[in-house]
Amino acid sequence: LDVSLKEFDEAVRLDPQNTELRLDRVAAQLSRKMYGPAETELQQILAAQPGLSRARALLGQRYLAEGKGAAAIAEFERAVELEPNRVEYSTILGAVYLAEGDVERAGGVYERSARRNRGSVTAQLDMANFHRLRRDWGAALDAVRVARALDEKAVGPALVESEILRQQGRKAEAEALAMQIRGYSPSDPASYQALASHYRQAGETEKAINEYRRLVREHRDDVSARVALAELLLERKEVSEAAGLAAELEKNGLQTAPRYFLQGRVLLAQGRPREAVAAIQQGLTLDPGSADGLYARGIAERMLGLEKQAEASFREALEKKDRFVEARLALASLALD
Fold first, then answer.
1. How far are the Cα atoms of 206, 207, 234, 265, 281 from residue 269, in angstroms, in the given order?
2. Between the CA of residue 248 and those of 76, 102, 116, 213, what are the distances in Å?
3. pLDDT of 253-304, one tens digit each?
4. CA–CA distance from 322 to each of 97, 133, 265 (Å)?
5. CA-wise closest residue to 300 among 329, 324, 270
6. Torsion over CA: 252, 253, 258, 264 (sign)
7. pLDDT in tens, 199-251
8. Which of the chain's ends, N or C, has fewer CB atoms near its CB within 10 Å?
């Protein structure tokens, strides 16, 4: 709900016994990182209604925000126990187990959810993605096809199947499916960008660029297609066209993190690191958890000779994304200087 906290406070004052309204306010507080008030209200609600699954899940989210994995697991386990057919609780619980390094328990959560919720695309897709994580492509393909049988035109499962086929080396099948997905939902970027994304992931840069150029012409309001095209152009050192795309986004007055990160990358490619830092920092203000943004800031800081700041940026990027190879290499390079 797009409601201010003052409006929530007034609504709760007028209807203090409305638990769902109070939980909506808690969700709004969590989204604004107001963890103390959120936890206090949740504890009050749970003291009166300990079997309220949504309150348990929100408390789990609150613990996750502070990195308290064990406490979060306990709350999500309780939420799943109370409402086993609420697939999103199992989805999050499995993800927390994976983050804690407990792959076996994560698999158990997803398997039980898929078995209980045979008619849920999400539950079957969770199972497919778990098998992908373990690189068990055969089991992943079986699971994703169960999900697709439930909704043949669902974009998400079809994209996953295309990716699995690509990872199996079945290039022609993957490309053919990506071309089909393009027509599933003409208004959904995930759908009409499917073929471009496939080419990009497959390392077929020229085909990806041509497809993104077509998308930019046909979907003039799609920011993500412009950003993806510009990123590919920068990888090819085609700075002029990438700068033109960034300038278009700036001219349109777009205030989003991807736009500022792209602007920063273009400025870096143009040898303007001081301006790049300023642009990237604007993006990080909007998306402080972006590992890519932190890494780009570190690159710019290093170009300016600010090695301590660059090291801090690279380390922060690794905190956000542990398997960030480029950030690790950048840190190793700094140590050798």
1. 20, 23, 8, 6, 17
2. 44, 46, 49, 14
3. 778 899 999 999 999 999 999 999 999 999 999 998 899 999 999 999 999 9
4. 16, 15, 22
5. 270
6. positive
7. 998 889 999 999 999 998 888 888 899 999 999 999 999 999 999 999 988 88
8. C
Q: 5-14, 46-55, 257-266, 281-290: lowest mean pLDDT where?
A: 5-14
Return left, alpha or beta for 222; rule: phi > 0 is left, psi -120 to 50 is alpha, else beta: beta
Check residue 120 and give its pLDDT. Answer: 96
d(CA 262, CA 249): 10
Q: Which two tokens stand for residue 318?
A: 């690794």
Residue 35: is its pLDDT beyond 70? yes
Q: What is the DSSP string of 146-195?
A: HHHHH-TT-HHHHHHHHHHHHHTT-HHHHHHHHHHHTTT-TT-HHHHTHH
Angstrom distance (rounded) from CA 264 to CA 75: 41
- The rounded Cα 208 to chain-centroid distance in angstroms is 22
Sign of CA dihedral 18, 19, 25, 27: negative
Which residue, chain included where needed, has tokens 């480029």?
Answer: 326
DSSP structure class, residue 287: -
Dihedral, CA atoms, 328, 277, 284, 315, nearest 10 degrees? 20
Residue 263, CA distances (Å) to 41, 88, 221, 234, 291 in order? 42, 36, 18, 11, 16
Mapped onto helix, strand or coil, the DSSP state of residue 136 is coil
| Residue 296 near residue 261 (C-beta atoms within 8 A) | yes
**pLDDT at 124 > cutoff 80:** yes
Q: CA geometry: angle at 288 spanning 309 and 314, to 5°?
A: 35
Phi, psi (degrees; rounded to nearest 5) at 297:
-60, -40
Measured distance CA(327)–CA(291) in Å, rounded: 9
Alpha carbon distance 86, 78 (integer Å): 12
Query: Residue 3: its pLDDT value, please?
Result: 60
- Which residue in this structure is represented by tokens 């769902």? 20
Tell me the whole-structure pTM to 2 decimals. 0.76
| Phi-psi region at 116: left, alpha or beta (left = phi > 0; alpha = psi -120 to 50) | alpha
